[in-house]
Design brief:
It is a single chain. This protein has eight helices and 27 strands. It has 417 residues and is α/β, with parallel strands linked by helices. Among the domains are: 76-191, 3-Layer(bba) Sandwich (FAD/NAD(P)-binding domain); 278-415, no CATH class. The strands form nine sheets. A six-stranded mixed β-sheet has the order 17-18-21-20-19-24, with helices on both faces. It has a four-stranded parallel β-sheet with strand order 6-12-7-8, covered by helices on one side. The structure holds flavin-adenine dinucleotide (FAD).
């Protein structure tokens, strides 16, 4: 919506009549203030009560607000709901300078949207590269360059110590630890989220950075389940939709008394929603000891592809820019999350493969095979790949090229001529 690519109607999950048609009694505009576990009722702030046999908590999370002076000034907001979006759209009509605190997925999407709406946008980030938890440094740097070309600026490695009043109770600037200040008419804090577990905690449910649930999404009270961003499952709180759908599927199974599903955690993949920038990563995209990396770097087309392989299996991927084919990222996501999938006989053909560096590389006639090294980390780099013959991903039947995909189950091989 902020980027002007969708309107409110496009992002609503279900229209209001859907709830009635599906036998769901919807209480709009009410906040649940208490769970009475003894009487098995929930109580809203206006005193309405609803009884339950089983209760599902899905209270989401709240944005983290930096505890700095000036955080309550007019013009300082977070990015969570439709009101925040409307404030940003409205402010962009009448003001010029926006500062985003946090160069994560949400911060960058907001920055891009505000830029498209005509604001001068600076993204303040504590780390030295953007999206450091979702991308490797190379992809982060390429992304930053691309966004700079669109006119965004990036004060990097900056720690915010305060928001400065413009003299009228509104935001006027953002101040950093090194004393520098940058002017701002709007400050958007996109510095992370915290599970919204206060309601559960006040009802005496066990919480630890989220409502603690087991593999059936059940809390410590057998009648109460929880899913979504409010949950801590095996110590992990997820902040993306896909894992939450997986949780919901298992939970629904148990609420319907089928009792056969278990949730064992999710492999998260992320994609930046900025039109014109294709950036995707999944699972262990950084690699480490005992992994092999296949890196395709083609600065001419702005493409960067990294596959991380461990013990013959694809365990992570990071894809940035360049030509893409439909299904590429979902193919990698499935492959990296599948316990049984590995890479085999990828028949891609680098016309001018320049350096294939691997301690266990062997040549076998028209095919060179790179077997993942036993205990060390190695990288095979093809800078400027030429033409690639096509391969087929057996994990999802997607036809693709090695730029995007391979056939997953065994050592990697490619045609040398
Ligand atoms: C701007 C934005 C863009 C995003 N884009 C993506 C994306 O592209 N892809 C992706 O995977 N994820 C994205 N996310 C994250 C995704 O939206 C969340 O992970 C997901 O919505 C979390 O679902 P949830 O049901 O746990 O919580 P929510 O969707 O936050 O729902 C929780 C609901 O509970 C209500 N609630 C809380 N407490 C109470 C109470 N006491 N009484 C009554 N109601 C209460 C809240 O008002 C809220 O409506 C985005 C998030 C934001 C903010």
């Amino acid at each position: 919506m902020l980027a002007g690519e969708q309107n409110f109607k496009d992002i609503v999950l279900n229209p209001l009549p859907w709830y009635e048609e599906n036998g769901i009694h919807l209480h709009l505009g009410k906040t649940i203030s208490r769970i009475d576990r003894t009487r098995r009722v929930v109580v809203t702030d206006d005193g309405t009560e609803a009884r339950y046999d089983c209760l599902l908590i899905a209270t989401g999370s709240t944005p983290f607000i930096l505890p700095v002076p000036g955080k309550d000034l007019k013009g300082v907001i977070t990015y969570r709901d439709i009101c925040d979006t409307e404030i940003m759209i409205e402010t962009a009509r009448v003001r010029r300078r926006a500062v985003l605190i946090g160069g994560g997925l949400l911060g960058l999407e907001a920055a891009n949207g505000l830029k498209l709406r005509g604001m001068d946008v600076a993204v303040v980030h504590l780390a030295d590269t953007l999206l450091e938890r979702q991308r490797d440094a190379t992809a982060g740097t390429l992304l930053q360059q691309s966004l700079q070309e669109r006119g965004l600026s990036f004060p990097m490695g900056k720690s915010t110590t305060g928001i400065v009043d413009n003299g009228s109770g509104e935001v006027g600037a953002v101040r950093f630890k090194d004393g520098e200040e940058i002017p701002a008419d709007l400050v958007v804090m996109a510095a992370g989220i915290r599970p919204n577990s206060a309601l559960a905690e006040s009802a005496g449910l066990h919480c630890n950075r989220g409502i603690v649930v087991g593999n059936t999404l059940q809390t410590y009270d057998p009648r109460i389940y929880a899913v979504g961003e409010c949950v801590s499952h095996r110590g992990v709180a997820y902040g993306l939709v896909a894992p939450l759908f997986e949780q919901a599927r298992v939970c629904a199974n148990h609420l319907a008394l089928m009792g056969i599903g278990t949730y064992k955690g999710s492999v998260s993949s992320t994609r930046l929603k900025v039109t014109g920038i294709d950036l995707f990563s999944v699972s262990d995209f950084l690699g480490g000891d005992g992994t092999e990396e296949i890196v395709l770097s083609d600065p001419a087309s702005g493409a960067y592809r990294k596959l991380v392989i461990k013990e013959g299996k694809l365990v992570g991927a990071c894809l940035y820019g360049g030509p893409t084919e439909p299904g590429t990222s979902s193919c990698c996501a499935r492959a990296a999350s599948s316990a049984n999938c590995a890479i085999t006989s990828c028949s891609a053909r680098p016309a001018s493969a320049t350096s294939a560096r691997s301690s266990t590389t062997s040549s076998t006639g028209r095919h060179r095979t790179v077997a993942p090294p036993a205990a060390s980390r190695s990288t095979t780099t093809w800078s400027r790949p030429g033409s690639w013959s096509r391969a087929c991903c057996t994990a999802c039947s997607t036809r693709s090229t090695l730029r995007h995909c391979a056939r997953w189950s065994g050592p990697v091989a490619w045609s040398a001529s």
